[in-house]
């Protein structure tokens, strides 16, 4: 319930500040393919899947992660960007930056942002770490 309330409140703020989100389509419309969803710049949450390249369940598998505008906010590791062709341009509308209100609102509620990670950057990604996970 706490996670659902967080997401509801944050998306209400997103609406109020007119932050552009291209689309929010259920992942099942993409046959549960994270790659297809990202290529379509789809904002998503629940997707029962593994972390890319691993056998570890993603926080998305338990509904504890949200990805926002993947094309403007790509996953970048070792110089490889996903979705393919995406660019992290902090001047582009729909891009999330460290000083974004969205980052502030998620962090206030105990979520972490993939843009803060050191070994890779996942600018689209927010996840909630529950006390049982720590």
Tell me what you see in this structure.
The chain is α+β, with helices and mostly antiparallel strands and 134 residues long. It has one domain (2-133): Muramoyl-pentapeptide Carboxypeptidase, domain 2, CATH 3.30.1380. It has helices at 2-16, 34-39, 101-108; strands at 65-67, 75-77, 80-82, 111-113, 121-122, 125-128. A three-stranded antiparallel beta sheet has the order 1-6-4. A hairpin with a 2-residue loop joins strand 2 (75-77) and strand 3. The relative contact order is 0.17.
Number of spatially distinct domains: 1
Rg (C-alpha, Å): 14 Å
Strand content: 5-15%
Largest sheet: 3 strands, antiparallel
What is the name of the CATH architecture?
2-Layer Sandwich
Order of helices and strands: HHEEEHEEE
Strand order, sheet with most strands: 1-6-4
Write the layout of secondary structure elements.
Elements: H1 2-16, H2 34-39, E1 65-67, E2 75-77, E3 80-82, H3 101-108, E4 111-113, E5 121-122, E6 125-128
Antiparallel strand pairs: 1-6, 2-3, 2-5, 4-6
């Amino acid at each position: 319930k706490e996670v659902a309330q967080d997401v509801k409140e944050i998306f209400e703020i997103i609406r109020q500040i007119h932050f552009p989100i291209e689309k929010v389509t259920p992942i099942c419309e993409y046959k549960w393919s994270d790659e297809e969803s990202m290529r379509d710049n789809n904002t998503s949450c629940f997707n029962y899947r593994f972390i890319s390249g691993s056998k570890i369940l993603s926080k998305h598998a338990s509904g504890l992660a949200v990805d926002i505008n993947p094309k403007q906010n790509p996953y970048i590791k070792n110089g490889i960007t996903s979705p393919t062709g995406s660019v992290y341009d902090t001047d582009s509308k729909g891009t999330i930056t460290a000083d974004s209100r969205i980052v502030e609102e998620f962090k206030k509620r105990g979520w972490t942002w993939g843009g803060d990670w050191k070994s890779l950057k996942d600018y689209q990604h927010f996840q909630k770490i529950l006390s049982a996970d720590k």
